[in-house]
Amino acid sequence: EKGGFEHFMLKEIYEQPKAVADTIHPRIKDGKIVIEELGLSDEDIRKISRIQMVACGSAYHVCAAAKYVLEKLSGIPVDIDLASEFRYRNPILSEHTLVVIVSQSGETADSLAALRESKKRGFPVLGIVNVVGSSIAREADSVFYTWAGPEISVATTKAYSTQLAAIYLIGILFGEVRECISREEADHYIQELLKLPEKIQRILDEKERIQWLANKFSHTKDVFFIGRGLDYAISMEGSLKLKEISYIHSEAYAAGELKHGTISLVENGVLVVGVATQQELFEKEISNLVEVKSRGASVLGLTSYGSYSMEDTADFTIYVPRTESCFATSLAVIPLQLLAYYISVARGLDVDKPRNLAKSVTVE
Ligand code: M6R
């Protein structure tokens, strides 16, 4: 059942190259992105004035990344909300807002309630869902299925990765239709997208180094994940993954925000994971890492091959292959999943079924 893997989580981590490929390939036809299931004509896409994304947990972290990606590729402003907040805050939605609900299970109570609330107000709802025929899939006006296959481990990995892939596809499609990106640019993005599965595989092939780092840091008490831009969105996911299955206290921070309070917690023994895949923000991120290091933190840098100056500051560095900066989340998340996994294993915990948690949260 676990296909020779010790846990479902590791099996699912390893299924990511295929899951991402399976999500992308059916939506590319003759070199163009075609997503018929959206049920949106070019005219409809041009009319969208705003995208409101709503989700919980890791699916919300996809929304956090999507804000950067969709705004950059499509030029449409994106708002994001936690479903448990959105449903009770009486959100102001302007005309031609497209509501997007992201959910692996399609059964999360708060996300489903957010969907119903949006529909009641007359807004079209697109579901990005993994489980076929689930409540959110049935009730949404249109459904983009992520073809991740069944996900058993409570900690999501492959569903998260396929949700990101869905966002890239929608971003490129909307961007080209709205002329925010040219045909040539769209083509370039599609080519880069098609290379992601192989790049994810390359990271998986280097898992021993992450395993070694996990053993080294498995007794750490406090971990901060910091990043800027998309690297902040990845940090949120890395932090949740770690706390969820290792029970180590961890927080994600926008790197520039640390000095507004949180840096007072940084001292000897604290681990700071600095994510820096975004070239234009690299130096800013490094200066934040210098600050935490001078206060006694151990620094684990996560960046792309080529950015070797990370080693001047970080105590340890993990490299991932280079890609388009707006797709970097898909690569940087892999070592963070592996780190959380191997730390949980090193601590002898129940990786697939962490305490107090359910795979799908059907109560509010
Ligand atoms: O099924 P959903 O995608 O709606 O679930 C949302 C969250 O409960 C889920 O992502 C949760 O945060 C994961 N266990 C994180 O690994």
TrEMBL record:
Keywords: Aminotransferase, Cytoplasm, Glutamine amidotransferase, Repeat, Transferase
GO molecular function, one term: carbohydrate derivative binding
UniProt record, GO biological process: amino sugar biosynthetic process; carbohydrate metabolic process; fructose 6-phosphate metabolic process; protein N-linked glycosylation; UDP-N-acetylglucosamine metabolic process
Annotated transmembrane regions: none
Subcellular location: Cytoplasm
Record-level GO cellular component terms: cytosol
Keyword S-adenosyl-L-methionine annotated: no
Superkingdom of origin: Bacteria
EC supergroup of this enzyme: transferase
Assembly mode: Homodimer.
Function: Catalyzes the first step in hexosamine metabolism, converting fructose-6P into glucosamine-6P using glutamine as a nitrogen source.
Protein name: Glutamine--fructose-6-phosphate aminotransferase [isomerizing]
Organism: Fusicatenibacter faecihominis
Full-sequence range covered: 249 to 612 of 612
